[in-house]
Design a protein that fits this description.
Blueprint (H helix, E strand, L loop, with lengths): L4 H11 L3 E2 L3 E18 L4 E15 L11 E2 L24 H17 L6 H4 L16 H4 L11 H8 L11 H14 L5 H6 L2 H21 L4 E2 L5 E2 L18 H14 L1 E2 L6 E2 L23
Antiparallel strand pairs: 1-4, 2-3, 5-6, 7-8
Helix pairs in contact: 2-9
């Protein structure tokens, strides 16, 4: 199937000063998973029975690349962080720890909700559209059931309300519910391990952050109170300067925020003392295993 993800990404990179070495290329890779579950193809507008997970990766052009060398130059103006995002004035700076992940997830989620209005749209449209299966979200219905096919149909709808998923087997037609079951089985393997201790309470913290910070912040930004401050600028209800342009946000949801959180947890880099944890276009498409002798460096100028 054809896709505009790569051309759109490369055009965005060119516009934003990202220089990619000619010895490498950014490619789209389809991981094909034949399935008995009917999956609706949003691009072709038809149901199909093959599941495609489209991934973007960086490959060499069949040419040996000696090292050390620089393969991609990424100006810091192209970095997406809590300092550079559209809602930056509304996000309290958190330099490290889980709070930094949550804050960057809010910054990223705000840009994702803006769609084509976002300055990073060319980059954002290349990111996975599904929630990345990080351990913190294994078996969590709220992170996987936003577009579940049986949420509003038949007697199973009530089961979703009680348990977060319909009580079905892995072979059910509902692939999203099957994904929740699979995640719960995977999480069971972590019981009585240090990993379980690390993950304990993490989902509750994400949910609480969404309720206390994400929802109020995005509501305030998408519907700014156009009152006048003493200096003549617009203020929100708290008296702080508010964003004056309505970004046309889509409806927010905890599952949508979990999607952004999963992208941050699986792709973000610490850039510098100013930006902190950030989304770095193209750098996040490389395979950073030690065997590749690949790493990212930040220049101070």
């Amino acid at each position: 199937m054809s896709s505009n993800r790569i051309p759109s990404l490369l055009a965005w990179c060119s516009t934003n000063g990202i220089v990619i070495d000619s010895r490498i290329e950014v490619v789209e890779h389809d991981t094909v998973a034949p399935s008995s579950d009917p999956v609706f193809d949003m691009e072709e507008n038809i149901p199909r029975r093959t599941s495609y997970e489209r991934c973007i990766r960086v490959c060499s052009r069949h040419e040996y690349i000696d090292f050390p060398c620089t393969l991609v130059h990424i100006p810091k103006t192209a970095v997406l962080s809590t300092k550079s995002c559209f809602i930056s004035p509304q996000i309290a700076p958190i330099p490290y720890g889980h709070g930094a992940h949550l804050a960057l997830a809010l910054a990223l989620y705000g840009e994702l909700l803006r769609g084509s209005e976002s300055r990073w749209f060319g980059y954002l449209q290349s990111l996975p559209g599904e929630t990345v299966e990080i351990a913190a979200l294994w078996g969590a219905p709220i992170a996987n059931l936003e577009r579940c096919i049986c949420l509003d149909t038949g007697p199973m709808a009530g089961d979703h309300e009680d348990s977060g998923t319909c009580d079905i087997s892995i072979s059910s037609n509902c692939s999203r519910c099957a994904r929740v079951h699979d995640g719960r089985n995977a999480k069971a393997w972590l019981e009585v391990t240090e990993a379980e201790q690390e993950l304990r309470g993490l989902l509750a913290e994400i949910s609480q952050y969404y309720t206390d910070i994400v929802e109020p912040t995005l509501r305030r930004v998408s519907n700014p109170r156009r009152t006048q401050s003493a200096n003549g600028g617009p203020e929100d209800a708290s008296g702080r300067d508010s964003v004056t342009v309505n970004p046309g946000f889509k409806e927010t949801s905890l599952s949508g925020f979990c999607h952004a959180y999963s992208l941050v947890s699986s792709r973000a880099f610490w850039v510098d003392a100013y930006h902190g944890l950030s989304m770095v276009p193209i750098a996040d498409a490389f395979n950073h295993v030690n065997e590749n002798h690949l790493h990212m460096e930040t220049l101070s100028f």
